[in-house]
Amino acid sequence: MLNAAAAERNKEPILAVLRESVNTGRPLQALEISSGTGQHVTHFAQALRNIIWQPSEYDRQSLASIEAYRAHYQLHNVRPAINLDVSLPHQYWGGIQPESLDLIVNINMIHISPMACTEGLFKGAGAVLKPQGLLLTYGPYAVNGQITPQSNIDFDYSLRQRNSEWGLRDISFLSSTAQRNGLFLEKIMDMPANNKCLLFRKESLV
User: So what family is this one in (predicted)?
Assistant: First the structure.
């Protein structure tokens, strides 16, 4: 059971956004992409029992940690974690069917992964979400080409030093990427530690 300090800090504020944004009165299907340690999915699943959660990861060590959290908490609404490379088409997402999900959650991935992962996230979400389904992303972002405050500028610089394909993405770029895939940016919510939650809604055909 790996423990990420950031996940411990942000899991409750993100849960508050989920409570406000999703229907808690009927059964829902959710996928967490890039689940990390497993702290988020087990925290959300304990609070939102109406949602069946599917954790996923690309990193093998993280997959083992998620399974350790599942075993510890014995939650009936968390499925075994699947190996998922978000840069691949949704047909390779562990058998998840088109228009089968009400919710996708993606926390602190977009800035610590190549652009292909961000593009794959929106492309896949556009395919596997039901009409009116929700994609929630969380992390630090640039706004209209500007990164604030200085701590986020420094963070972006350090990410790009580690990997030239990493770095904070601009919300306007994410919004246009979403629109190309049948999603629209419904809401931007300020979060602690200079992060934001972005809520993207899949458009219905009606």
Answer: Belongs to the UPF0585 family.
- pLDDT beyond 60 at 206: no
Beta bridge partners of 134: 103, 201
What DSSP character marks residue 97? P
The pLDDT of residue 198 is: 98
User: Strands 195-202 and 129-139, how do they pair?
Assistant: antiparallel
Cis upstream peptide for 149 (omega within 30°)? yes
**Structure token digits, residue 24:** 């808690």
pLDDT at 38 over 90: yes
Residue type, 93: W
Q: Which long-range contacts (CB under 8 A, 24 or more apart) does 126-129 make?
A: 126/178, 126/181, 126/182, 126/183, 126/202, 127/90, 127/98, 127/99, 128/31, 128/90, 128/93, 128/96, 128/97, 128/98, 128/99, 128/100, 128/101, 128/104, 129/99, 129/101, 129/102, 129/104, 129/183, 129/202
Alpha-carbon distance 8 to 19, whole Å?
18
Percent of the chain topping pLDDT 90: 97
Phi, psi of 81 (to 5 degrees): -65, 145
Could you tell me the maximum CA-CA distance found in the chain, to the nearest angstrom? 46
